[in-house]
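Methods: example folding runs. The two proteins below were folded one after another, and each record is reproduced exactly as written to the output file, sequence line first and C-alpha cell line second.
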Amino acid sequence: MTTLLFLPSATQGYRWRRIGDDGAVTEGEGVPALADERVVAVAPAESATLHWADLPARSPAQAVAAARLLVAEASATPIAELHVAVGTEGEGERPIAVVGMGAMAGWLTDLAGHGIDPAAILPAALLLPRPDDGYVRGIVAGQALVRSRTTGFADEARLTDVIVGDAPVETLDRATLDDAIADATATPPLDLRQGPFARRRRIGIDWGLVRRLALLGAAILAVTLAIDLVRIAKYSFGADALEVRADALGRTGLARGETVTDVDRQLDERLSGVRGPGLGFSTTVAAVYAAVRATPGTELTSLDFQSNGTLRIGVGAARESLPTDLKRTLEAAGFTVTAGTFQSANGRVTGEMTVQRP
C-alpha cells in the first residue's frame, strides 16, 4: 500500500491519496493515520520549476553538476539558495526540478513533526503522463496541472494560454489519470530527496551474516593454526632425525666395542687423547717448526712431547743471539717459553727450551 501525501500550498492544506494493493483508491484531506506503508510526498506545482535537458548519464554527481550550471544561467535566484534534482524519464532529455532550499527544509521539518519520513518527494506536474505531442491537463487532489514533453506547471488560465498557445491540449479522463498517478508513484521519474535532502538509510545489523563471518574467521584461524602445528611437527621430526643420524655418525668415531653413554663427550675425550693435551702434538710442533723457519741459523736437535702438553725442544744455533730470537718468535705466537742454559762449543750454541700453552 502506498499513500500520496500532497504538501500544502498557498491555497489548500494537506491532502492524501491512498492506493491499495488491489488498486483501490481512497482520498481525503489533512494528514492521514499511517501504518507501515510507503509514503510519497507531492510538492505543489507552483513550488517546483521543471526543466528538461540532455545531461551526462555516467554518474548522478556529474548530472547534478551539469544541471546546476544550466539552472544558474536560467534563474535570477542565486544558485546557492536553490535545490536542484535530476531524474530519469524514458530516453532522451532528463527532467530537472528546481526548488528553494528553504521550501525543502520546511517540508521535511513539517513532515517530521507528523512522524513522517517520505520515501520520495515528487513534483506534482510529473504525476501526469508525458505526452508525445502537445499538452495534457488533469486535476489531481484538487489542483489543476498541465504538462507537455518538456514543461510542467499549475494550470492558471492566463499563464496556461500564453504558454500553450495554439498547441493541442488533451484533458485526461479519470481512468487514464489514475493509471498515470499509480505509475509515477511506483517509480517516481524524479525524486527531490537528493543531495543534502537525501533520505538517510538505516543501518541494520545482519546477525546471520555476523555469525557466518565469525565462523569463517574461526575456520581460517583454525586452518592457520593447523598449518603452524604441522610445520612445527615437521621441523621437530626433522631435528630428531638429524640428531639420530649425528649420533650414528658419532658412534663410528669411537673405539670399537666402547659403551656409548654420551657421544659428544666421548668424542671430545678421544680427540683429546689422539691429539694430546694442551693444543696437541701436531699443532704445537707445527708452531715450533714455523718459528724455526722464521729464525734463520737455528735448528731443532730434539723433540719431547710431555703428557701434560708441554714440548721440550733441543735447539742449535750459529750465533749466541739466535736462541733468544727463536724464543721471542715462539712467545709472539702465543706460547710460554722457558729457556735452559745454552753452551757454546765448536762454533755452535746448543741448549733446550720448554714450550707450552699458557
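Second run, written to the same file directly after the first:
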Amino acid sequence: MAIRTARLMRQWTTWVPVVSVLVLAVCWGRELPGPVVVLVAACLIGSVLSAVHHAEVVAHRVGEPFGSLVLAVAVTVIEVGLIVMLMAGGGDQVSTYARDTVFAAVMITCNGIVGLSLLVGALRNRVAVFNAEGSGGALAIVTTLATMTLVLPTFTTSHPGAVFSGVQLAFAAVASLCLYGIFVSVQTVRHREYFQPVPAAADPGGRGGAGTAGTGDEVSGPPTVRETWGSLGLLLVALVAVVGNAKLVSPSIERGVESAGLPTAVVGVVIALLVLLPETLAAVRAARRDRMQTSLNLAYGSAIASIGLTIPSIALASLWLSGPLVLGLGALHLVLLALTAVVSALTVVPGRATLLQGGVHLVLFAAFVFLSFSP
C-alpha cells in the first residue's frame, strides 16, 4: 500500500507541473473568464504541492542545509523575475511594488512560517529545539538587510521621499549581495554544522519529546542521481508554474481588491503568500518530522534571499525602468519590522521555543495581514 501511494505521488507530481506550464502558456496575455481563473487557481495549488514534493526529494539527496537553500533560491529567483515583469508593465503602483513585496516576504517568513513551524514542533514535542548559532546568524543577516534596504531610505536626505539616490542604491545592492554571499558560504561550507537539524532528544532542558528525527524521508533510501536531477528539473518547472499562474490570477485579485475598496498593497501581500506557499508547506512538514532547524533554514534563508537577490536585481532593472523606486517603509510598517526583529531575537537566542513563542509570531503575522487590509 505504501509503495502504491508513493508511486501515485510520483505520478501526479510529475504531470501536474507540466500541465500547469501548458495552461500558463495558453492563457498568458489573455483576458480570462471566471471558469478559466478557477482552472488556473487549481493548477497553482497543484504546482505548490508538487514543488514541495520535489524539493524534499532534492533535500533528501543533498542533505541540509543545501536542501532548504535550493528551494529558497529557486523561489526567490523566479519571484524577482515576477517583480521586474510587473514593474515593466507600468501602472500607478509600480514605484512601491518591490518594497511591498519584499516587506511582505519578510513578514511572512519571519512571523508566518517561523510561527507556524514553532507551533507544530511544540505541539509535537512540547519544546521545539534548534541551533541558536545558525538561526541567530541568519536572523542577524535578515535584520541588517531589511534595515539597510527598507528602513534607511525613509531617513536619507540625498533624494526627496523614501527613495535612495543612485549611489546609495548601488551601495545597498552591492552590500546585499555581499551579505548574501557570506551567509551562503557560512551555511554551506565553513559552519555547516550550525544549520544541521537538531533532534528533540538533544534538548538540554530535558523537556523535549522522544524525538522522531529519522522518520519520514529516512524510511526509504536516498533517491538516485537520476531521480534527484529529475526532481530538480520538475521543481523549477513547478516554481515557474506557481509564479506564472499567480501572475495570471493577480488581475482577478486586483479587481476584487479594488471593488472591495482595500489598499492596493494588499495585492502584493496576496501574491507573496501564494509564491511562498511551497516554502511554508515544506517548513511545516519539516517541523512535523522534528527538523525544526530545517524549518528555520527555510524561513530565514528565504527572507535573506528575498532581500539579498531582489534589491540588486531591482537596482539593475531601474537603469531601464522609468519612474522612482520607493523602498522606504512608512511608520506603521517600521513599527512592525522593529517588533519582529526584537521578538525574533528573543525567540532564537535560547535555542528552544514553546507554544508561547509560536503564538507570538503568529499574532504578529496576523497583525501584519490585518493592517494590510485595514491600515
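Comment on the second run: Residues 32 and 173 are 37 Å apart (CA to CA).
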